[in-house]
Amino acid sequence: MIAAVALLAGIIAGLVLHPTVPGSLEPYLPIAVVAALDAVFGGIRARLDGIFDSKVFVVSFVSNVVVAALIVFLGDKLGVGGQLSTAVVVVLGIRIFGNAAAIRRHVFRA
Amino acid sequence: MSDQEGQPPESVISKPPPTSRARHLRATALIGVLLALLGFAIAVQLKAKSVDKLAGLRDDDLITILDDQNSRADRLRSQIAQLQVTEQQLQASGDRDSVARQQAEQQAQALGILLGTLPATGPGVAVRITDPRHKLEAEDLLDVVEELRGAGAEAIQFGSVRVSTSTAFSASASGVAVDGTTLTAPYTVLAIGDAQTLATALAIPGGVAATARAAGGDAAITQLARVDITAVRALPTPKYAKPAPN
Known about the structure:
The structure holds two protein chains of two kinds. By secondary structure, chain A is mainly alpha-helical. Chain A has one domain (23-108). Helix content of chain A is 83%, strand content 0%. Chain A is built from four helices and no strands. In chain A, helix 3 packs antiparallel against helix 4 (81-108). By secondary structure, chain B is of the alpha+beta class. Chain B contains six helices and eight strands; from the N terminus they run αααβαββββββααβ. In chain B, a hairpin with a 2-residue loop joins strand 2 (155-158) and strand 3. The radius of gyration of chain B is 52 Å and the shape is rod-shaped.
């Protein structure tokens, strides 16, 4: 419950404050968002499975974001940033779909 | 990337015991902060995307787009050049066509005048040949035409008949038949050419004028600045001769 409220508050804050993204961070923000979404879906699924752990969630959230951004950063330095970010998005997307399927089974029993 | 789905059941065991409420609260707050950050980032990203499509792209993507645009511009430029060349070619060929048509028209007119299919006008002479004793024969009248031709006459009208390359003079009962048309004295001959030369050619000793006088008639030669030859003949169609391929 607190998590949902916090998410909503963050969205509202972003819409109201409309800050500008620093140029150096621009390529990494969307990847970081996708990685964080992956962690969030994983957390929801764990919660429905009854195995949710705050510590695991926090660590997975942060490490997901950091590792995704790091991969893209490294890719940029190697000149394959575009391809690597695509790869990261694909992998995270697959995981999100998997988690969403598990959540769906829990919620709808189907 | 650690995730929740692969967590072994022991994570259930590691759930905070009810006694450590402070730790539980801290974790909840941390989760709240993280999710708030996520929401914030999502909102920012959505905003940035909707404001400017290019601003959020990385350098090599921008370079790729720039390259695409450049090559597209190059393609379009070369297309423009090609089309301009085509346009010039078409214009040139149009010019050539009109020049050729003009030349053809001029040639047709020149040939029409020489063949007698077109009326003609220009400086020349009018000759009136009288023959009260009917002693002038077809050959004498043909001599008139020959003399005029020799002096460079470009168009000749004999009586009401336009003289051409195939014009024939033949004797007839009442006078002379030119191309089948019977003419009687006095004969009027119109010729376009250099008037002075034509008059001189007709008046030479032993020439046309002398012949007419010897026959008891006369040849009155008038030099005119403008002679109108209105008689025309049909364009002869060659029956046997055909243009030879060069």
